[in-house]
Amino acid sequence: MQNSKLMQGFTKFAVKLGNQIHLRSLRDAFATIMPLYILAGLAVLLNNTVFTWIFKGKALERIQYWGVVITNGTLNISGILIAGLIGYQLAKNRKFTNPLASAMVSIATLIVMMPNTVQVIPDVAKKAVSVSAVMPFSNLGTGAMFSGVIVGLLATEMFVKLSQIKALHINLGQNIPPAVGQSFDVLIPILIVISFFAVISAMLNNMAGMNLINLITTFIQEPLRHVGTSLWGTILLYSLGNLLWLFGIHQAVIYSSILEPLLIVNITQNIVAYQAHKAIPNIINVSLVQSFGLIGGSGCTLCLLIAVFLVSKNKAARTVGKLAVAPGIFNINEPVIFGYPIVYNISMAIPFVLIPSLGILISYTATTLGLMSPCVIQVPWTTPVFLSSFLATAGDWRAVIVQLIVVVLGVLIYIPFVKMNDAVVVAQAGN
């Protein structure tokens, strides 16, 4: 009875967390921007591997321009993109009637909070010089992602609340174009929000010689990212996410809302470093977790399917396995989660949570020891096993071997639990 109440309480808390409006908006925004990150990863991969095999000298420089401009239009403006997307998604989740205005306000506010004078190194110089009225990619891109998140949330909340005050509305009547009417309807809230943040920006600059980007990066982004995406922090959060599946709750409640945004920041920094031929800063990132902790889907259930085909004598389990293997190759495993099932199946709890953690630990250790290259390309989460590790590491065949080791170990760990599950099913049928 106590266990049942505990399970119900945990389930209720997890559902409430997953429905939290800010986390949901964050998840939706990053899901929307994901194609751009994948495109950026593809461009960096081609620029630094395939093109270097085919072209040399000036020809290589000309063809690589293609990848450079794609990076500029994706990663290097990701800070302002994520601010706008969060503004849009949060306003939509708040049922606000003009979410596009929220996106516009979020982007404008983030720009307002950026420094007006920056240090840059000209192409022909060795020392940095002060330049005014420019916005470098370092402030627009991955370095501003966390600032974009925070500004997007704060500016949108303020804008939506002010827009609900009828005294601040300007009604031009009905005989005007709808777009014009909507613009004037939120004119005063827009003026207040952007002016308010501009005052904060001016105070930070004049009194402390700082800006919001520096403050957030130094005191919020980096400490949170280092803790959340450390080896044990990642394993803990990812394991908690997989644990939710045992209660029928999608692991995205924790993974997509809390962990994945931090992991995406890490892989974007890796992509930029790889493109610039610099040391790769982050071993733990979204590509490593997905390639080595999402083999066949949550719980590395492709290993489970192989174990079922090897040792299971249960007809229903083998039938589910045949139906689930095709989507499982592309890391889609709802047929296994609900058909085998994993949900509320105590027999599968240990391997389902353990194997993904083991995959992350093994790949982290292999990268640390130099046995495989770090993950520097963001690949789609649906990329099949072996191809995912090869692409994520920019073509390192050793990563495929490491992934194969994880698969073999996963199958061996699942086997005794598959046999146990068969015995439980038989016993339940006998009753």
Briefly characterize the structure:
Keywords: Cell membrane, Membrane, Sugar transport, Transmembrane, Transmembrane helix, Transport. The chain has 431 residues and is an all-alpha fold.
Outline the structure in words.
The chain is an all-alpha fold and 431 residues long. It folds into two domains: 74-221, no CATH class; 232-430, no CATH class. 70% of the residues lie in helices and 2% in strands. The protein is built from 19 helices and two strands. It has a two-stranded antiparallel ribbon with strand order 1-2. A hairpin with an 8-residue loop joins strand 1 and strand 2. Helix 2 (21-54) packs parallel to helix 12 (255-275) and helix 13 (286-293) crosses helix 17. It is globular, with a radius of gyration of 25 Å. The model has no long low-confidence stretch (mean pLDDT 88).
What is the strand and helix layout of this fold?
Layout: H1 2-18, H2 21-54, H3 57-72, H4 78-93, H5 99-112, E1 117-120, E2 129-132, H6 137-140, H7 145-163, H8 178-185, H9 187-208, H10 212-228, H11 231-245, H12 255-275, H13 286-293, H14 301-311, H15 315-329, H16 334-339, H17 349-368, H18 387-392, H19 397-430
Antiparallel strand pairs: 1-2
Main location: membrane
Subcellular location: Cell membrane
InterPro entries: PTS_EIIC, PTS_EIIC_3, PTS_IIC_cello, PTS_Sugar-EIIC/EIIB
